[in-house]
Design goal:
This protein is an alpha/beta fold. It has two domains: 175 residues, 4-Layer Sandwich (Metallo-beta-lactamase, Chain A), CATH 3.60.15.10; 133 residues, Rossmann fold (3-Layer(aba) Sandwich), CATH 3.40.50. The protein is built from ten helices and 19 strands. The strands form three sheets. The chain has a seven-stranded mixed sheet, with helices on one face. Strands 1-2-3-4-5-6 form a six-stranded mixed sheet. The radius of gyration is 21 Å and the shape is globular. It binds zinc ion (ZN).
């Protein structure tokens, strides 16, 4: 039903799934750059394709809203929310041999800016397992949010510029919503602003915010710290001159990898917070329980998750074969 041929593929009709190489026909689960290539024909939700086109181009598109059935030769498909970022989708496919669900990146925890994931039953489950080790269990979301708000409030009270780093697509908009809901003013880095405006055009307003201008931070017309509020920026600015212009600053990075010791040094920030757009270990297990598949293929992250499932009687293996051998056909 599914195999690996320079990328994950539905054998029946050469429909690729999140291929990183250009393909004739490919499902794009969401618009993070590690899931994109310049395909001849891209299939995805309206939101995903709108964002993807900022980063690559497609000769043609199949635009498919959530929950709408679509027929390709030998396969009927339907997209469901994966709860990861705006427009992110799981693909459910039915072929003569049975059904499958391909998750792309997903999470089951709630979010303020993305509809909840809707996993549906399938015979085969092809799932991302980024955090597929029991070590990766995130604390309750509210606990992480409370810590974020507390650190931001303390920084502002002490005259330090709070700078919160998160991926420009998805994490940044969720952070803006969390912070503005709590009453903090927000300034967003230009890379974030471009994606926030797409969120807004697609009907998801991250919240009131101003776009970064150096004149707001320095010089005669500079705003007060209280007016500028929290600065939201992508992770790649952590060690840049952009950050270093703020002499008194408190920097925070939001990522599931925050659970690893030394993560603050790795990211070059003062604090790390485990706010993730991916499923943690328990959510990965929960997904398998909800989908009730006959077979599981794992993708990305820790291969041990397939071992964990096999030990519990689930037929599971990694989706990407070892270069030396093909594990399935
Ligand atoms: Zn992603």
């Amino acid at each position: 039903m599914i195999d690996w041929d320079n990328g994950l593929r539905v054998k029946q009709n050469d429909l690729y799934l999140d291929s990183r190489r250009p393909q004739r026909l490919c499902f794009v689960s969401h618009a993070h750059t590690d899931h994109l290539a310049a395909h001849d024909r891209a299939l995805g939700t309206p939101q995903t394709l709108a964002i993807a086109k900022l980063r690559t181009s497609f000769a043609s598109e199949i635009v498919l809203p959530f929950g709408q059935k679509y027929s390709l030769p030998d396969i009927e498909i339907c997209l469901y929310s994966s709860g990861h970022v705006l427009g992110s989708a799981m693909l459910h496919g039915s072929v003569a041999e049975g059904s499958f669900l391909y998750t792309g990146d997903f999470k089951l925890r709630p979010s303020l800016t993305v509809p909840p994931a809707e996993p549906v039953q399938a015979d085969w489950l092809i799932m991302e397992t980024t955090y597929g080790k029991p070590f990766f269990r995130f604390p309750p979301r509210q606990q992480v949010i409370d810590e974020l708000l507390d650190r931001v409030a303390k920084a502002l009270a002490n005259g330090f510029q709070p700078i919160v780093l998160g991926y420009a697509l998805g994490k940044a908009q969720e952070l803006i919503r969390i912070l503005t809901d709590a009453g903090f003013p927000v300034t967003e880095h230009g890379a974030v602003a471009m994606l926030s405006s797409i969120y807004e055009k697609q009907g998801v307003n991250p919240g009131p915010r101003r776009r970064y201008r150096s004149a707001d931070f320095k010089g005669p017309s500079a705003l007060t710290l209280e007016e500028r509020g929290v600065l939201i920026a992508p992770p790649n600015v952590a060690r840049s001159a952009f950050i270093e212009q703020f002499e008194k600053r408190v920097t925070m990075m939001c990522s599931g990898w925050a659970l690893l010791s030394g993560a603050n040094y790795r990211y070059g920030v003062d604090h790390v917070l485990p706010l993730s757009d991916h499923a943690d270990f328990d959510e990965l297990v929960e997904l398998v329980e909800r989908v009730r598949p006959k077979k599981v293929l794992t993708l990305h992250g820790f291969a041990e998750f397939a071992d964990y499932l096999r030990d519990r009687g689930v037929d599971a293996t990694t989706a990407k074969p070892d270069p030396q051998l093909r594990l399935f056909n």
